Amino acid sequence: TGFKKKLTLFYSNKTKADICFFEDLENLQSEMDSLRIINTLTRDKPEGWNEKEGHETGRLGIEMFQKYISGFERTKFILCGPPGLVAAMVGILKEFSIPINRIKTESWGN
Prior knowledge:
This protein is α/β, with parallel strands linked by helices. About 25% of the residues lie in helices and about 25% in strands. The longest helix has 13 residues, at about 85-95.
């Protein structure tokens, strides 16, 4: 028995060095069939980074969500991060007619 729902974690950082628990998360993903982690870097592109599934560069957005989430329109979203990031993601999801009752948010920082 394990976690039954599919969970995709989009984890955005400026550089690879900024990714907390990178190896632990990679190991957890290999142990859990229901978990997929998409690491995206906004200011760094280490050599070979984009060659591995789930390693992206650039900011989070609809194109990246659609690339990794089938049934995007029926997905529940949990957004966590600085207020500006959370607000921007909520705005993008609303533009694509994701109902607000399928968007949960938590902000931290300034």
